[in-house]
Amino acid sequence: MIPWQERNLEDRLTIAPCSNADGTHKLPLFVIGKSKKPREFKNINLSSLPVYYHNQKSAWMDCNLFKSWFIDEFVPSVKKDLNQKKLNVRAVLLFDKAPSHPSEEELVKGDIKAILLPPNVTSLIQPMDQRVIEWLKRRYSRKYINSILEKSEEGFNIFESMKSSK
């Protein structure tokens, strides 16, 4: 799992995708925002969204959020997928050494565990670095630009369009 931060002067959002190596089991995106209840979702129950959303002041990943995601989202999702495929419940999460990641010892639940990748190999063997994050960023940017263009066609100036498209 490799986090991606959307950086803006006002907004920040961390998005962390995760899937198995062949892409047949994709977990909901782990999204970290600043707001406990973002304005954009004021009438929406956050637990009904197709993402695992958490908030914190900086909107950055930290050890506690990562560990919570591992125990509350990763392990149950992997167990369910393996049970449906009638496979033994054994899995490994590969992750890189980042200050926001807990130690391997903290990320163990039965036969599901995490293994730290050696330095300088993440971009070579980590599935999310094999164009998944790039594709996600491009798709997000395309949708964002399209929403700005739609607003500008409705008569908003470009700055109003950008503000209302956030």
UniProtKB/TrEMBL annotation:
GO function terms (MF aspect): DNA binding
GO cellular component, one term: nucleus
Domain DDE-1: 11-154
Database matches in InterPro entries: CenT-Element_Derived, DDE_SF_endonuclease_dom
Domain of life, per lineage: Eukaryota
Protein name stated in the entry: DDE-1 domain-containing protein
